[in-house]
Amino acid sequence: MRSRNKLAVREAIGEAALRLAVEQGPGALKVVRVADIASAAGVAPRTYNNYFSSREEAICAVHAGQARRLGKALRARPAGESFVDAVVAAVVETFATPEPDRAGLAMIMRTPELQGEALKAFTMAEEPLAEAIAERTGVTAGDLTCQVRAAAIAGAVRVAGRHWLDTTSPPPFATVLRAALKSVL
Amino acid sequence: MRSRNKLAVREAIGEAALRLAVEQGPGALKVVRVADIASAAGVAPRTYNNYFSSREEAICAVHAGQARRLGKALRARPAGESFVDAVVAAVVETFATPEPDRAGLAMIMRTPELQGEALKAFTMAEEPLAEAIAERTGVTAGDLTCQVRAAAIAGAVRVAGRHWLDTTSPPPFATVLRAALKSVL
DNA sequence: CGGCTAGATGCGTGTCACGCACATAGTGCG
DNA sequence: CGCACTATGTGCGTGACACGCATCTAGCCG
C-alpha cells in the first residue's frame, strides 16, 4: 500500500468503484457501499475518504482523467495538420481508442446521481482544451472564443456518447464522434 | 402551506435555499443546514426532503427552472426571424432579462460542490432546446446535429456566465452572451 | 355529511463525511 | 549509523442527512 504513490492509490480506488458499480448495474449507488469500494481497492474505508468525498466522485474519476488528457492530445498533434483535423484526431484517440466500455459509459451518463459528477468531469476538460486551442490558433489564452469552442467540442463529445449509447446496433464510436464534431467545427 | 400547490412549495424551498446560501457566502454548504432551509421556506425538514434529495439540488433549482425555459423562448420567437437572430434573442431574454444576480451566479458556478448540479441544470435545458431547433429548422427531432447545436449553445451560455463573473467592471451580460454565441452560430 | 386522496409531518434507521489522534514507513541530517 | 521529521494510512467518534414508514389534516366528491 505505502509503496504505491498517491496517484496510484487514487486510480486503484477509482477503478474499483467503477468496476463494482458496473457489476451491480442500475441502482448500484444503493448497493455499493463505501466499505465495499475500499476493500476492493485494498485500502481502509477512511483512506477512501481521503481521496474522494463521495462515491459519485470516485466512480467518475477514471473518466475525469480521460477527459483531462484531451488538451494534451491536441497539443501532441503535428503542427502541419489543419485545426479541424487535429481536433478530430485528438478527440478520437482520446475517447475512442480503445472503444469505450458501453456498460461503464451507460452507468455514468444515465444514472441521475452520477450525471452531475460526469458533467463536471467533462467540463474540467474544457480549460486545458481551450488553452491548447489558443496555442494552436495563435490567440491569447483566456480568449472567450477559445473557451466557447472548447465547450462546444466537449458538448459534441458528450452528445455523441449519448447517441452512441442509444443506438442498439453500435457503429464505431469514432464514426459518431466525427459526425458530431462536424456540426461544431 | 396546504393552499400553495406543489410547484409553489418547490419554488419557495428553492428560493429560500439559494437566498440562505448567498447570504452565507463561500462555504455556505458547511453552514446552511437542512433545518435552516426548511424553516426559511416555512415547511418541515421532512417536507423539504420530499422535494429535494440534496441541498445542492435545492440551491440550483431556480436556475434549473430558468434554463428549462430556453426551449420555450425559442419557440416563441416569430417565424420570420432568422435562426441565428431567434436563438440570440431567446437566450438574451431567458438569461439576461433581467440582469442576473452576480452573487447567486457566482455561488452556483464557483462552489465545487454545486458545479455538478449546476451543470446538470444547464444540460437539462439542451433537450427542449434541441427539439425547438429541430422544429424551427425543419429536421426530424432527435437528429444528432440538433442536439450538438443545442449543447454548443448551452455551453456558450455557460462560458459567457463564467467570463462575465470574472470581469471586474461588468458589461451587460447580454453583450457577453452575444459575443459567445457568435462563435458557435 | 361521511369517506377518500394528496400532501405535510414525526420518528427511526442506516449511511456517510470528516475532524482528531495514532501508528508506521520513508527521508534527510548530523 | 542512528535520530528526529514528515507524509500517509488507519481507527474511532460525532454530527448530519436521505429516506422508509406511519400518522394526521385539509380539501373534495358523491
Would you spell out the secondary-structure blueprint of this structure?
Two copies of one chain form a homodimer.
Chain A: H1 6-24, H2 28-31, H3 34-41, H4 45-51, H5 55-68, H6 70-75, H7 83-95, H8 102-110, H9 112-124, H10 126-137, H11 144-166, H12 173-182
Helix pairs in contact in A: 1-3, 1-5, 3-4, 5-9, 7-12, 8-9, 10-11, 11-12
Chain B binds a DNA duplex (30 and 30 nucleotides) through helix 4.
Written description of the protein model:
2 copies of one chain form a homodimer. Chain A has 185 residues and is mainly alpha-helical. The first copy, chain A, has 2 domains: 6-59, Arc Repressor Mutant, subunit A, CATH 1.10.10; 60-182, Orthogonal Bundle (Tetracycline Repressor, domain 2), CATH 1.10.357. Chain A is built from 12 helices and no strands. The radius of gyration of chain A is 17 Å and the shape is globular. Chain A starts with 5 loop residues before the first helix and ends with a helix. The model of chain A has no long low-confidence stretch (mean pLDDT 94). The structure holds a DNA duplex (30 and 30 nucleotides).
